[in-house]
Design a protein that fits this description.
Layout (H helix, E strand, L loop, with lengths): L1 H26 L6 E5 L40 H9 L44 H19 L2 H8 L3 E5 L2 H8 L7 H4 L2 H21 L4 E5 L8 H7 L8 H24 L4 E5 L1 H10 L8 E5 L2 E2 L6 E2 L13 E3 L7 H12 L7 E2 L3 H6 L1
Parallel strand pairs: 1-2, 2-3, 3-4, 5-8
Antiparallel strand pairs: 4-9, 6-7
């Protein structure tokens, strides 16, 4: 009996050691903080208090999210939610700028705003939004607070240099600008090649501002296949399934230049690490081989109105589809949680050599 008791005690001691060791590993995220800049693909509530049509703080948005409708344009998690909370090891999601305060800003802030673009006029037909320039101004305000909390600029710079900065804009500069000639003149001013050049020139200056305010590990997320969204299929696809090629071609022109910009930034700022995430290519896989990823419907929103559930986006209290994991798109424009999990996972740990360049987020965190 005594020997059995000793054996049980030894087993229990091993279990306690293993559990406590595992708890320590889980408690420490791979980077101290994560800052997010973008549009409705990653907005988590910044537009809630803004006079804008681009808002998602109502059901059925958030129907599968533990906190319900928060302002995320999804049934559940966004790509950055997946990367931050599940893959980088943070114990919670990054708070929106609209509510972040005090010490919590040291873990990062989400500045993203639905309808925002690289260009200031982008998305203005939808009402209020925080443009990328506005998001940068908000970040500069955060940096001042970080300096106050940490005591001096050198300590703050050293701290911010270890954080990851996720930047994903450009979609609205096409969707809610270039390909909306009834509201914007850009398509009459520029060819698609010229427009991509103009966007990247401005983007380059904006990323330099981010660098000047402490960013050293920057993730540049390419534009996805806007021509395959239910909204574009509803308006411009004859059969409702064939993607709109002229839009996708324009998106690829932007992405090619964005990848070159990553090279340029790495060459010009040797103490910085800039990477490119090929959202377009990852999305291409989901559309080409949907069944491999569990999707059955790729050309219609789970929630929406009209052709492809894409002519009007998801309305308040509308009943969405039941089989949400089988739909690539949640609404007229945005992927559902199931797709976001795949895109986020492949951004963090590249499944294909083309997913990330020159390294993925997992490797960036280690540099």
């Amino acid at each position: 009996m005594a020997s059995q008791l000793r054996q049980w005690c030894m087993v229990w001691a091993v279990v306690v050691v293993v559990l406590s060791w595992g708890g320590c590993v889980g408690a420490e995220p791979q980077v101290p903080c994560y800052f997010i800049f973008g549009d409705s693909l990653v907005d988590n509530g910044n537009n809630n208090g803004i006079a804008s049509l681009a808002r998602a703080n109502y059901l059925p948005y958030g129907i599968d999210f533990p906190q319900g409708p928060t302002g995320r344009f999804s049934n559940g998690k966004t790509t950055v939610d997946v990367i931050v909370a599940e893959l980088l090891g943070f114990d919670d999601y990054i708070p929106p700028y609209s509510s972040a305060s005090g010490q919590e800003i040291l873990k990062g802030v989400n500045y993203a705003s639905a309808a925002a673009g690289i260009r200031d006029e982008t998305g203005q037909q939808l009402g209020g939004r925080i443009t990328f320039n506005g998001q940068l101004r908000n970040y500069q305000s955060t940096v001042s607070q970080v300096v106050n909390i940490l005591g001096d600029e050198n300590t703050a710079a050293n701290y911010l240099g270890k954080c990851i900065y996720s930047v994903g804009l450009g979609s609205n500069d096409y969707l809610n600008n270039y390909f909306m000639p009834q509201f914007y003149s850009s398509s009459r001013q520029y060819t698609p090649e010229q427009y991509a050049d103009v966007l990247i020139r401005q983007y380059s200056q904006q990323i330099r501002t981010l660098y000047n305010y402490g960013a050293r590990k920057v993730v540049m997320i390419g534009v996805g296949q806007i021509g395959c969204s239910p909204n574009e299929l509803a308006q411009n696809s004859q059969d409702g399934t064939t993607c709109v090629q002229k839009i996708n071609d324009a998106n690829q022109l932007f992405n090619d230049r964005l990848k070159s910009l990553v090279d340029e930034m790495n060459d010009n700022f040797p103490d910085g690490r800039f990477i490119y995430i090929n959202a377009y290519g990852i999305f291409q896989d989901l559309i080409t081989s949907p069944s491999s990823y569990g999707f059955r419907v790729t050309n219609a929103g789970c929630c929406g109105v009209g052709r492809n559930n894409g002519q009007i986006t998801c309305l308040p209290l509308q009943t969405p589809c039941q089989n949400r994991k089988e739909y690539l798109f949640w609404d007229a424009f945005h992927p559902g949680e199931a797709a976001n999990v795949i895109i986020g996972s492949r951004s963090y740990s590249a499944q294909s050599s083309s997913d990330a360049y020159p390294v993925d987020i997992r490797r960036l965190a280690q540099l």
